[in-house]
């Protein structure tokens, strides 16, 4: 005789078990180690469950597509393993994590150019947007064109007489052309030529000479300001015992460190300063390591280390002991 279905009992899946399954499913959505789960939530109501997870996604990635893949996988996998109906899952992206690339990709680069290739991207100095020169030239051109347009419109639309500055300018230009040897025309031509050369130089050079490129993963371009590197070098050298004033000048390829010695041996202090400066430069992660030049000079308050006492010959000691009178 079979037992009625109503008396066979029931199976209840706890909220905690559903939450653990949803968290585990989120880590399987993209790939091994790609998604990190912070905290999940689950609420079971009868044969339905609502789940949510907080995740950290890898960078770079399309957040919309990655989030949709995590959401669909969590909902489907949780419903498959629990037997509950999971209409949807709530996914909250808390942070982004940069993918870890092999160290070999960050250490390759031709020695002739000094640049470091990170994966397939060659780390170079960033290109400047030239906002200040462009704004100045644009404002000057706009002002001249606006003034000329206003005078032309007032003459043809309102029937006014042309402005004196425009008539005088036209008369002066007609009498002082490029063929004339007068100095005003030559000065204006020279000024226009210099301005054109300057704009061409700005267009073909990267600029941003105050920034140094850093070695970064593929798809990421990073740079650091020279003043930040100089401050880091200054702090590292100032921590060396016996060093007083420190002056650091950071260029595109080298860093000059001038330190004042207050006490201690000069050669030992110079070696310690060079070691501290090299470690500080290495910690910056630059694409092109800087060549460090160190100069240590004693300051006015410098005191030389005391010399060790000279050793006394053993024969002198024995002779002196023998010559002493016996009491």
Give the helix/strand layout.
Elements: H1 15-27, E1 36-45, E2 48-59, H2 63-82, E3 89-98, H3 103-106, E4 117-118, E5 121-122, H4 131-158, H5 164-175, H6 183-204, E6 211-213, E7 223-225, H7 226-238, E8 243-250, E9 254-263, H8 266-283, E10 291-303, H9 314-323
Helix pairs in contact: 1-2, 7-8
Describe the structure.
This protein is an alpha/beta fold. It has 3 domains: 12-98, Cation efflux protein, cytoplasmic domain (Alpha-Beta Plaits), CATH 3.30.70; 131-204, no CATH class; 223-303, Cation efflux protein, cytoplasmic domain (Alpha-Beta Plaits, 2-Layer Sandwich). Helices cover 43% and strands 22% of the residues. It has helices spanning 15-27, 63-82, 103-106, 131-158, 164-175, 183-204, 226-238, 266-283, 314-323; strands at 36-45, 48-59, 89-98, 117-118, 121-122, 211-213, 223-225, 243-250, 254-263, 291-303. The strands form 4 sheets. Strands 1-2-3 form a 3-stranded mixed beta sheet, covered by helices on one side. Strands 8-9-10 form a 3-stranded mixed beta sheet, covered by helices on one side. A two-stranded antiparallel ribbon has the order 4-5. The chain is flat and about 120 Å long. 18% of the residues are buried. Residues 303-327 are annotated as: Disordered. Residues 194-297 form the DUF6286 domain. The chain crosses the membrane at residues 132-150, 181-204.
